[in-house]
Amino acid sequence: MGGVVKRVLLGLCGALVVGGGVAGWWMVRDGGVAQPIRVGILHSLTGVEAACELPVVNATLVAIDEINRRGGVLGRQIEVVSADGGSDDMQFARQAERLIAQERVVVVFGGGGASNRRTIKPVFEKHRHLLIYPANSEGLDASKHVVYMGTIPNQQVIPAVSWAFQRLGKRFFVVGSDYIYSRAVSAIVKDYVGILGGEMVGEHYFALGTKDVKGVVRKVVAAKPTVIINTISGRTNKPFFAQLRAAGISTERVPTLSFSLSEIELHQFGPENMSGDYAAWSYFQSLPSRPNQAFLSQLARRQGRDGLVANDSMESAYFGVLVWAQTVQKSGTADVATVRRAIHGQTFEAPHGIVHVDHHNNGTWEPARIGKIRQDGQFDVVWSSNSPVWPKPYPSSRTPKQWQAFLQNLHKQWHGRWHGPTAYEASKK
Amino acid sequence: MNRSTAMAMRTVTVLLPALCLLALLVGYTWQQQHMRKSVIAYLQKQTDIQGEKIDEYIAQNKENVAKLANNNSFQQLLLLQDSPEKKRQLNFLLSQTNSSFKFDDIFIVSKQQEILFQLSDNKKTSLTQREKKLFQETITLMDTTISKLGQDSADQEAHALLATPVVLQRRLAGVVMVSMGSEGIHKIITHREQNNPYPFEVVLAFSENQQLHILYSTGKLFGLRASERIMNMSSPQTQQLQQALHGKQGAGNSTDRLGTPTLAAWKYLPYVNLAMLATLQQQSLFSSTRNAYLLAAALVLLLDLIFVFVARRKNGSHELCRYSYAPHNNWHQQAKWSLNGFLWLSIVIAASNTGFFGYRLIATQNQLHDRLDQEARVKVQQASQLLDNRINNMKNLGDSVAADLQSGRLKAQDISVRLKRIVKEQPEIFGIGVAYSPYSYKPNIRLYAPYMKRDGQNIVSVLVEDVYDYTLPQSLGRPKTDWYNKPMSANKAMWMAPYFGSASQKFISSYVTPFYRANDQDKKNPIGTIEVMQDLSSLHNLVSNFNMHGTGYNFIIDKKGTYIYHPIARYIKQQISIQDIAAENLTAVADLANNIAQAESSNKISMYGDGPSWVYTKYIPGTDWIFGIAFEESDLHASNNSLKFFITMILISMFILTLLVTSLLLQNLTASIDRAATYFAIFTGSALLTLVGFWSYMLLEPSRVQLQHSTPILERFEIDRYVTSFRKARAENLSVLAIPTGIMLEDIQFIDFKHATISGYCWQKYPIGANLRQGVVISNAVDSDFQEVYREPKGDFEVVGWEFTATITQHNNPWRYPFDNQNISIALENSDLNANVILTPDADSYDLLHPTSVPGIARGLLQSVSIQKSFFSYSEQKPKNRLGLDENSHLIYIPNLVYSVAIKRGIVDPIVFYVIPLITVLICIYLLFMMQHKIARGDLAGAYLALLFTIVLLHQILRTQLQTDTMLYIEHFFLTSYIMILVVFSNIFLVAKDPPTQWSTRFLRLIFWPGILTAWIVSTVYVFLQ
Q1: Which residues contact B375 (CB under 8 A, 6 or more apart)?
Q2: Size of the A and B interface in Cβ pairs below 8 Å
Q3: Which of A322, A394, B51, B699 has its CA at 20 to 30 Å from residue A118's CA atom?
Q4: CB B232 within 8 A of CB B375
Q5: What is the pLDDT of residue B730?
């Protein structure tokens, strides 16, 4: 009997040894215990742009949380290394360098505004790294190291101008901030208003961050436009719209079509003076689709249902992370070079519809939509393209060479920066 | 026998086979999973590769269009007047673009949506709705080239439209539109298919109006009907395509539209906004592996059985039934236990197999029924929606003219212009007219009724008041005036009952609405009516696309049950109602007739004619009409190979199960019955039953007709469609005359497998004044004789009839004889080879062209065969030489009109002539064999030789009669008989040895009938499954 017990015990020990060995091999077969994948998030967490960019950071984290909850990518969790661009181009460049060279992240999500992006682009090109940029941009750029998840002018500005020409009127006045996005978009608007047979009756660019808009509104009134195209960045919007209404320019008389006003700005500045006007984006929070409802639920888990606001850049930041994760999963590696190549051709059902990273340039196929601002700060979609629009970095009104010359002129004019003197700089002078 | 030997015996006979079977099962499951994974990976890779190629192809063409629009020379061309020189220059420019730039047409549209220039000669007068939408989107999106897939009408192939804006001198000049067929995509896919290790199928689909449309389905692009291009919304394939259209890529299990399990991979193609699905049938993939494993399992069982018997013999218990009488003998007990174990194991396996296949058969049948049900519901819904849209369009046209007349937006003097424009722009409208009441048009003019109608390609203007007084009440012998009087007296808009227009020779239905003076706000005194007419044949074209399977057809009735549309034109002409059909036909139809008038949703009604038939109906809200689809359930079963496979497996499993159960019972019976005799009786009985099961199924199976390189014409609307597409595709400047041709067969005599003699009547309708030689030639006839028997003018035609006899060559494959089909095909050509004439089926001479209505077969023809189908088709196989004509001859290739008859062979003659004599001879051989110990050897050999001679003679007669170079199914029976005679003949010599060999006689007794029947079952299964 004792012999039997001994034999059973020996058998059990043997089984344990073999089982343990197999389990150990299972755990270490992919190079030891799964290490997290480090990714960088680079946005303005402080400074004037922080108010608009913090929600984008939030949306990026929502996507990363979602992936980690599902077990990560390739069985590895995602670890976030956050960096603050401080609403300053040079700070952005320094932080980008740190994330890539010191923190060894495999991808950076973010990039701030247009001038920040243009400043940090050379850093990514130098390190042959990968930036996934969530905001809409002025185009005129197609770096292999930046994937543009937001819309570019042929997906936002040009359709909106054409739509406005057909529906709102033929006399256009452009107002913007004195930085690369507004200047480039303004040039594109001018070209296409001409092509359509309309008339540019005036333009004005505010210093970044200014609140002084009085003279400009008088200029607008005098020019008698039928449509105002707005590319003003940040807080200048609030006094501008207030002054417009004070000057008797109602949305019915002269509607404004904005490329920089989203749900976030409406929430921050209040929609009172803006309801009835229009904005062009790919995504609106009010879209009824199921993927959008799922996105909003994910967002609500993080920041609560009360005052839940989402905009186009947040949505792009969200699906940008998921598209990257899908690419890593499909490639079987998080290696920068492999992912940079494999991300072309990726298709994903984003909250606003299907997005597809183009094979030829790093833009994404996105639908064009125009929304009318409601009293509650949300949008009613009044026009939508039937299918996603092919991203075309350089509008056909000029050759790529002519566009590059245009950019260089501005760069030179701004003394090597991508924006004019800011309101702060002006006040110091 | 000691304990350890007994244990060893149990292990060897029961445990070891069970372990082997288990190992085989595990191995099979593992290998299936492994193969499944690798095939799915392969399909995913293929969707990636081919998807990218398709995307690239469209992207390149988009780029080409954009380059063209931005090309300075092209822009300069736009400034030139439309001229041949402009076209020449444009062609030159296009030749400079990328060679992959394949297109059907290019046209340039101005900002005002006028067509400024068109490359092809097939001039468009205005943009279609789809083109208008695309134009609008292009000038809104401005700086991009966009593509749109779709089809302009239900009977048209889906194609892609690419559009890009043209900017001339920094101003928007218009939009360039390029129309592309899907041939380029077809080439990409077919090119890949040639190199496939797994021949998978590809489906490309797009979404339009919330419906999923198939753009491409492997190999069937040009054969797919419009209704087949709209996918059933509930099938797994559809769901996977929908997922792909939502940008999701995936792979996994699927089932095709007939419920056959497949593996699939799907992907979204962004450049074309298409969903791509690659599928591979699981059955074809796993069948060879499964068969190998089944064979291995059978081998294990066989070896086990042999081992049991050999072991028994070695231990002195070789007599089959002795062991049960020695209960105290340990070895016998063990052997019995082992055999019982083996039998129980086999019974469990066989019973599980039977149950499994039975379950799969029922599940597949249910799945097919559900699918059929869903497909019919979707189709009936879609068709009624389309009809409703069409009808609403008519209604809106009439109402808008009425509103404009009343508001003054349409002046009386502009009525004709407006009416003409409506007829020109709305191809589905046959005519439209305005009829004023007396003195309402002008105080000095009594009646005024301008009316525009379509007459071929022209629009004809008629003043009705010049032809007759439409205000008079309708009466016999006078022109119809209800269209005016009824709406006027009722003072409301209404749909008029369809009628056959004797002048237009068309079935017309119309919508009539009254109109009023501007100051008559209450609309109490109408001053006239507006009648919008549509040609019902256009409705036929629309609804015919929603037929279900082979025997399916559709119909439209009004709320009284009168047919508005039915494939039998007579029903519409004579205003027959569904109640009339019920009165003269089936009682079940009467129930249908009673229910159908109230039908406001999809209904399934089972009727019992030749088989269960289903009818689905749907109320069309715009009118009081009801649309219906009818079809026979058997059609779906006929086309499903899975059902056939399951039936085979059930029959075989049941056969094996019966044998195993019998063996087990005999093994354990202690009564003094003759076990061997019982065993063989049961074996023979169940084998015969299995054979009868297969034969019955083969007899009931509908005949199949091969339609390679040909287009069947199953309904009258398909004739016009085919001729129109043929003219469009081939005859650029030549006119091709269509001659209606009919045939009536009175007799068919089969000479052999390759020849048949036919006789009957043939007729043609020649347009009066046509300058061509009259007559018909049967191009596949060895000899023929035509005698003209009548010649009569009828309207614009002269009908010429001939009585004919001909010997025609056939290409039937007889290897399934006597369960084969005897199809004949008669290829008809016009005798004037110098004329460009296309023969068309004379649809007016037949009630229906549908195969199951057997058009062109005289009643009472051929009692010994069963004529299952007859139909017309166009053979599109081009001759491989130019028939001695010059390459540049003005003659163009014209397809033959082929009349085909599918005939099921009568089974009685072959059974009486061959099978019964053969079985009789086999029984004689068996009896002789059983009595061989009582007959002298020489006599026995002589008797065997005589019987062999009888079989050889029978075989010789069969071969002489059928003259074929393939081995027929029935010859397998002869082959078995030859082998059996050889075996029993050899036994004479074994028995003659000294000492005589007895085991061979016993063995032969055992296997004589089981061997023959097993051989027959094997060859039957082989033939059945082909």
Answers
A1: B232, B257, B548
A2: 87
A3: A322
A4: yes
A5: 57
Rounded CA-CA distance B148/B161 in Å is 5
What is the DSSP annotation of B923-944?
Answer: HHHHHHHHTGGGS-HHHHHHHH
Provide, rounded to the nearest whole percent, the portion of chain A with pLDDT above 70: 91
Average pLDDT score, chain B: 76
Q: Is A199 on the interface with B (CB under 8 A)?
A: no
Q: Is the pLDDT of residue A202 over 90?
A: yes
- The confidence score (pLDDT) of residue B315 equals 59
Hey, of A196, A357, A397, which one would you mutate to test binding to chain B, going by the most B CBs within 10 A of its CB?
A196
Smallest CA-to-CA distance from B815 within B979, B638, B962 is with B962
Q: Which of B137, B138, B141, B267 to mutate to test the interface with A (most CBs of A within 10 A)?
A: B141
Task: Say if the Cβ atoms of B141 and A359 lie within 8 Å.
Answer: no
* Nearest of A324, A391, A400, A359 to residue A129 by alpha carbon: A324
Does the beta-carbon distance from A195 to B172 stay under 8 Å? Answer: yes
For residue B803, the cross-strand partners are B761, B787
Contact between B928 and B902 under an 8 Å Cβ cutoff? The reply is no
Model confidence at B850: pLDDT above 80: no
Tokens at residue B263, please?
């593996």
- Per the CB < 8 A criterion, the answer to whether B752 and B800 are in contact is no
- Band of residue B215 on the pLDDT scale cut at 50, 70, 90: confident
Q: Of A141, A79, A135, A107, whose CA–CA distance to A265 is shortest?
A: A135
pLDDT at residue number A72: 92
Q: B interface mutation test: which of A386, A402, A403 has the most B CBs within 10 A? A: A386
Token pair in block for residue B201: 């199928």
| pLDDT, tens only, B487-519 | 998 888 888 877 766 556 677 788 899 999 888
Q: How far is A390 from chain B (nearest CA, A)?
A: 7
Strand intervals (E) in A363-426? 364-365, 369-373, 379-384
Which residues on A lie below 8 Å from B148 (Cβ)?
A: 386
Q: What is the pLDDT of residue A342?
A: 92
In chain A, what residues touch B143 (CB-CB under 8 Å)?
Answer: 153-154, 158, 192, 392, 395-397
Which of A154, A196, A347 is opposite residue B247, by nearest beta carbon? Answer: A347
pTM of the model: 0.59
**Model confidence at A10: pLDDT above 60:** no
pLDDT level of residue B772 (50, 70, 90 thresholds) = confident
* Alpha-helical segments (H) within B614-763: 634-638, 641-668, 675-700, 716-730
DSSP A135: S
Q: How far apart are CA A57 and CA A63, in angstroms?
A: 10
Please name the member of B62, B70, B268 whose beta carbon is closest to the beta carbon of A347: B268
**Are residues A356 and B268, on separate chains, in Cβ contact within 8 Å?**
yes
Q: Look over chain A and give the mean of its residue pLDDT values, rounded to a whole number.
A: 89
Residues of chain B with C-beta less than 8 angstroms from the C-beta of A365: 270
pLDDT for res B317 = 45
**Alpha-carbon gap, residue B297 to B292, rounded angstroms:** 9
Q: Which of residues 37-56 of B touch A (CB under 8 A)?
A: 52, 55-56
Asked if A166 and B140 come within 8 Å (Cβ–Cβ), the reply is: yes
Residues A195, B170: C-beta atoms closer than 8 Å: yes
Distance CA B554, CA B617 (A): 9
Q: Which of B161-165, B370-374, B570-574, B717-721 has the highest mean pLDDT?
A: B161-165
B172 with A159: Cβ contact below 8 A: no
Query: Strand A108-110 and strand A131-133: pairing?
Result: parallel
Mean pLDDT in residue range B212-223:
60
3-state helix, strand and coil shares in percent for chain B, rounded to the nearest 5:
45, 25, 30
